[in-house]
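Table 4 source record.
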Amino acid sequence: MTVNISRISSRLDLLYLITREFNATPDINQALRNVLSAVVALVRASDATLLLLDDQARVEDVFMISGFKAQRNDRLIMKTIPEQSLQGWALKHKKGSIVTDVNTDDRWDESNPEPRKSGSAICVPIQIPDQLIGILTITAPQANHFDESDLAMLTIVADQAAFAIDNARLFDAEQHRRRVADTLASIAHTINSTLVLNQVLSLILEQLALVIEYDSSSILLYDDDKRMLAVQAARGFEDMEDALKVKLPFNQNSPNYQAILQKKPFVIADVDAEPNWIKSSSSQAVKSWIGAPLIARDKVVGILTVDSHQTDKYTKENVNIVAAFADQAATAVANAQAVTRLQNAEATYAALFEDSTDLIIITNYKGLVLNVNRKACQILRRPKDALIDLDIGFINNRLKDFLIKRSKRLKAWLEASIEIEVLNAYREQIPLEVKVRQIQYKGTDCVEWVGRDISIRKEIEKMRQDLVNMLVHDLRGPLGNLINAIELISIMAEPTMDNPQLKDILKMARRTGQTLSDLVDSVLDVSRLEKGKVPLQRSMTSLEKLIQAVQEQVIIQANARKMELVIHPLPEISEVWIDSSLIRRALINLVGNAIKYTPVQGRISLTTTATEDKLHFTVADNGPGISKADQVHIFNKFSRVDYSVHTPTGVGLGLAFCKLATEAHGGTISVESEGIPGKGSAFHLQIPIVKK
């Protein structure tokens, strides 16, 4: 658009033209030329110069009118404004000024960009509230050409220009921001198109060139264990082999680690002036540098660097763009690293899976076999392809029901176990202890069955049980004779016996004989109760007599160890329908164990409570306690807690008998202990109250 200068005859015409130009002309550069031409024409000046400044007060653009001819110079005349100049004075004081005679004003500098000889000048700053964005200067060849009204008018022009320039810059910045955002979105899609780490890193550096100009760039990933940054990808270096070998040990003063520690981008205008900068042979040409941390899920995974061979190359906007790009890249890197770790873990698992000495079967939650290892094929005597896609019930029909009942537990990432026998292709029975848990298999929640051949353990257990049974059977005859003899002696001597000590000895012998008889019966009953071959001999039993019998059986043992044996008051219920022999022996076992394991002069208590439908016995002590690990198996046959020093002797059948006797009544038995010496243990035996 060309301005009709002949129509600019008054300041009002000029202001009208300025408003029209800035509002109607889409090209801000053309509008500035038109306004400058009009100003020169109205005040009969010879030249006008407009310096546009960036946010660092550096000259960004130059517009000139000389002899009514518009010119434009992009940083060719000056890059910075000299302090000792009229423009420097306006920059410093941020207000306009008149130079009536350039020959007598110290602020006038002959290096000013005005192309013609000047006699007087006006200089005004173009500024918005928080920033000076330009300086406007007009000159005339003669001295004393301008007055205060010209300065006032030029100030109004500068204010209008400031508003228009700022709006144009904001518009350009928004357009640029949108272009960058669109580019970053496209880049994010591109770099996330693969999960192979090396490909991701290569794509990041390739796509980075779309949003910022650089001579070289690199990605350094952080190894937290080694506390070291290592270059994993690089571009633009003359010696790429050397660039890819760069490793930076942790140094909190290093610019790379400063970016990581502070989790924000760093920019260096001249690396040669940075005392903590370390140059490698491949980075000798680097001058300017940006380092942006790669942060994914609030964790720094590395740093993205951008280099230039020019000093002071990068602006704040460049830093923001690199930081935004790094945010996009960090997620892609973290995802690729996660996939790499998963692939490595899967490869390790696959090797362990096949080489395991235990049978391993993987199924889904419907029980369909997805995979089996080499050991499973050996135990079952079947090839892998014959087992895949079978139902787990084919291995053992109990496993399918077990899976259905334990699915909720497994999905909560809790383990379950079961002992089974499997029949292989040769019709051989193999006993297995199977541990069952949930795993991730090919991205899906599945079930892993790990079976250990316990044939040898079963054989040893059977041999031990057979030996115990044989010894017990051999003891029953002589023991019975001994007990009968004691009873016979008591009966025969009763009418004439007046020796109290002899009476006490016979009572002790009778109790000892009963204890031995109970022990023998309990050992035999363990195997019979397991097989369900011991029918309950229920009868209406007095709780008082039951607890008294228990007390009489254990009191001598307690007194011998100077134990405090506390029997708490009984509940209101007087009689219960139980097998008194089984429950009496179970309670004697619990109290006897407490006496054996509690240090001398300890305290043992037996508490009996009742609700409407349950009878509850609690045997508590202040002994060494039982660890959580031991609590899992103490009710198993031949299982004993090892306290290393002064562990009482025994075969480990007492608690197994207690459990079987309790369960035969439809009840439960449990232990409560923190495993802390002095805090002891509490065994809880509960059985339902059966109405006769």
